[in-house]
Amino acid sequence: MPPETPDALAPPDIAQTVDRLMPRLRAAQRRGWLIVLASVAVTALLAYLLIDWPLDGTTDPRMFVVVIGLVLVGAFGGEFHARSAHEAEMIPRVARELGLSYQAGSHSLVRTFPPRLLPYDLSAQVDALFSGKLGGREVRFAEIKFTTHSRQPRTILDGIVLEFANVVALPSFFIVQKTVTESGLLSGPRHEVTDLALLRDVSTDKRQTYGIWLTRPEEEQNPAFEPVIAANLKAETDLGPEVSLYSAMSDGETTWLTFRKTRDLFRIGGLFISRASVLKEVQHAAQDFGLPLRLITRLLEIEATAARPKLSP
Predict the structure, then answer these.
(1) Is the pTM higher than 0.90?
(2) Up-side HSE of residue 311: CA atoms within 13 Å toward CB?
């Protein structure tokens, strides 16, 4: 029986919660502005000293670059403090309204990844981890960033990872953009696929070419295989222009999908909040939650439908 989409996928109405928390949100906003104002005050004092009392009679122009840098640090620091405090207040509540639990910066998900899912020799930073149940099955998804181990770390993947238990047993497959299985920016293949059998290459509407590999080629005959592969490749279209598929894989019992994203998700608050802006951002955050949840639900339904015995006419 296919899993049912929970009612919690509907955007929550938490206006009362926002009203109750507005004093705390306003307090965090004021602290953010204090950081900005303190930075401006220190910077103004430093600029005055540099102009009026240069130590050797002249002012090094490079010092004004430092002054401008201090202003920017204060501005970004104030915004970061306010937004972090607002999200710490609101995101767990939005997640709870949707039937999910929330962990900030948790690395427990990364430790459960199969080695093949992670690009070669990269570190992973998890911004937020959400978990819950769909149709009685555990699901987890997270904002995650993969960066290189180097003196100047480079972001290889800034996106979302989804993990969910399959409805039926599937072949062990691996789908990934072909460019990241070839030698290139890193010291070797970014994803190791030499122990797998390449089934075919597929191009998508977004002009990306993906390779489809199987652990055992004979498992291609599994009735759920082709519908599930097609659904995984179509997932980026369902998620819209801000998200593109990076990879998908299954060990037969669990499926993982990774997507690149072009904007930060689940963002609430900042230096310029109002009650109206917070309510609007809460609705956007609920929609961000709904995208992966609806995608997982649809994939589970496809698995269940594909595996169901076909009745003779």
Answers:
(1) no
(2) 1
